[in-house]
Amino acid sequence: MSKASPYRGINSTSSTSPKFKKLSIFVGLLLGLILFKFSTSWSINTEDKIVSEYLNNFYKLNPKFRGANPYDAAVTAERLAKFFPYDNSARRIEKSIWQMWKVPSTDPDFPHKELVNKWKNENPTYKYNLLTDDEILEILRIRFKDTVPEVLEAFEMLPNKIIRSDFARYLLIFLNGGVYADIDTDLQKPVDTWFDSDRNVGFVVAVEEDINVENWEHYMTRRIQFEQWTFKAKAKHPILRKLIAKIVETTFQAKKNDKLQAYYKDFKGVDRCASVDIMVWTGPVVWTDTIYAHLNSIPSPTIVDIDHQRDIAGELYGPENGEGDVISWRFFAGLRAPVMIDDVVIYPRASFREDKENNCGKYCYVHHHFGGSWKNNGKGEIKPGMEGYEGEDPNEVEELRKNDVSKRDVIPGESKDAAPVKKLAKRCAYPYTPY
Predict the structure, then answer these.
(1) pLDDT in tens, 83-136
(2) Contact 343/196 with Cβ under 8 angstroms?
(3) How many other C-beta atoms lie within 10 A of the C-beta of residue 280?
(4) Closest listed residue to residue 227, CA positions, set 276, 169, 178, 275
(5) What are the φ and ψ backbone dihedral angles of 203, each rounded to 5 degrees?
(6) For residue 93, which of 244, 206, 207, 199 has the smallest C-alpha distance?
(7) How far apart, in whole angstroms, are the C-alpha atoms of residue 314 and residue 172?
(8) Whole-angstrom distance, CA of residue 4 vs CA of residue 59
(9) Which has the higher per-residue pLDDT, 323 or 214?
(10) Dist. CA 280–CA 170, nearest whole Å
(11) What CA–CA distance (Å, rounded) separates 63 from 67?
(12) Using a CB cutoff of 8 Å and minimum separation of 24, what contacts does 110-118 make?
């Protein structure tokens, strides 16, 4: 018989034990509160607060889960910091390279062998690691089962391969430190030649896209968002800690709200309002939001801007800065060279894309082939003009743009005329809330 999750219920115990008496009191209080809900006015915020307090009280009864509340990212982040403290001493990022795929490299179906060999052979002083899905799960069970088990449970609850892949890469680098790279990335220069390699740096990432047009929201989820196909970090870095905690929170909230289903624009048969967007759940949205939140949490940050000039032609388009944001997307718009903000290095867009057509120069380190194996229900990305393309009708998209509405804002079954009046974001509540 499988062991019951500590988050879904309470295992029975002897009626004579002190724990059972305490538990009975909590259950009685909870029942009383439920009755109170139906006899008085009640708010969602009040209910969430009561549930949160009840969960905290329950975990106090079990030493293994004491203090846990997977519905609150702040609590999970504190627990991760306790069991996996960050070493803030001056040092380089761990010299390890991490890649992963469904099957080992010896399998006949393993793709991109020549690219994987470049990562391995051109970095001889680095420990190379290629893990399968099963090996990753075993590592996570060993490291989290008796420390922060809500992380492991959230990982095992994830309903989609790509979400697991996103979460796995964050967890692997959080636990071990080093470089993560998708297997469809083509290394152009050895890691030790990168700008950050001989500096006391804790986290390294690059701009994913910088589309300076008025209707930028039709192309990207954030005006300047950061890529996840290649990044570096020291083990237990605070950015990854906060990111993991937020994904745990979103996953448990999705389960609680019966939305434990992944959405992407070309996934067939997925109810947009009964699911969580992959981009939000584990993708560029939560990744980017967490990085910005961390940068803005640094008191009086030290900023090293290698090239103050920015490649911006004409008017700069994008949203207003958030309240209290010192470092926003505007700082990275048109970025031409790396910038350091305390121990975080942000590379320009070309660094991990290798924009050969525009001769990106000395800061080009990785070329990404954008295999998109997770798109189109696992069949890979089929672009307009390719056989089997069933994506957006360009004429329909243009019509929506005229009304300032993205394809993402249309709920299946509703008329297009209703879309400009009611945006999807106002009708479909997500379990995700940014920092």
Answers:
(1) 999 999 999 999 999 999 999 999 999 999 999 999 999 999 999 999 999 999
(2) no
(3) 18
(4) 169
(5) -150, 135
(6) 199
(7) 42
(8) 15
(9) 214
(10) 15
(11) 9
(12) 111/183, 111/184, 111/371, 112/183, 112/184, 112/369, 112/371, 115/183, 115/184, 115/185, 115/186, 115/187, 115/369, 116/183, 118/186, 118/187
**What does the pLDDT look like over 293-346, one tens digit per residue?**
999 999 999 999 999 999 998 899 999 987 778 899 999 999 999 999 999 999
- Please answer whether residues 221 and 282 qualify as being in contact, where contact means their C-beta atoms are separated by less than 8 angstroms: no
CA distances from residue 5 to 13, 15, 52, 145, 157 in whole angstroms, order as listed: 15, 21, 17, 12, 11
**CA separation, residue 392 to residues 172, 217, 329, 383, 407 (Å):** 36, 16, 28, 10, 8
Q: How far is CA 426 from CA 91, 256, 419, in A?
A: 46, 20, 11
Structure letter (DSSP) for residue 276: E
Residue 336 tokens, joined = 């031409």
Give the Cα separation of 227 and 81 in Å (integer): 25
> Cβ neighbours of residue 72 under 8 Å, at least 6 residues apart?
52, 249
CA–CA dist 221, 206 (Å, integer): 16
* Tens digit of each residue's pLDDT (9 = 90 or more) over 395-426: 444 444 444 444 444 444 555 454 443 444 44
| Contact present, 166 and 282 (Cβ < 8 Å) | yes
Q: Which of 148, 180, 200, 174 is nearest to 342 (CA)?
A: 200
* Angle (nearest 5°) at CA 177 between 86 and 286: 80
Report residue 265's pLDDT band, with 50, 70 and 90 as the boundaries: confident
Long-range contacts of 104-110 (CB under 8 A, 24+ apart): 104/130, 104/132, 105/130
Task: Show the tokens assigned to 382.
Answer: 């089929």
Longest CA–CA separation in the chain, Å: 75
Query: Distance (Å, rounded) from C-alpha 243 to C-alpha 174?
Result: 10
Q: Which of 185, 177, 178, 169 is nearest to 119 (CA)?
A: 185
Query: Please, which residues have CB within 8 angstroms of residue 291's CB and are 6 or more apart in sequence?
Result: 205, 226, 239, 344
Write down the mean pLDDT value for the chain: 81
Q: Is 236 left (phi over 0), alpha (psi -120 to 50) or beta?
A: left
Length of the chain: 435
